[in-house]
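Structure tokens please, single chain.
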Amino acid sequence: MRVINHPILGKDERKKKVTIYVDDKPISAIQGEPILASLLAQGIRVNRITKKMKEPRGLYCGIGRCTDCVMIVNGIPNVRTCVTFVEEGMRIETQEGLGQWKNKK
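Here you go.
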């Protein structure tokens, strides 16, 4: 679900649809929206699994203060998906624990 007509912010004028890859699965997103918004719109609620208790985490604060929404984005772990914007072809992975750096290709 996306807010397309906000009472204060107005109408969402972003139109360009792009494809991003979440755990190697292609999903449709709107360029310029936060990654987390794209994931939620597709029903993806889990962003990471905690290191110690192996518990799922997702949206919590939504403003980049906590670390519940961190994921591996283009090989870089611990990216806050609530304040990182979608770009065509991004590769996003559910993060396990502290995440691991991956080589960019």
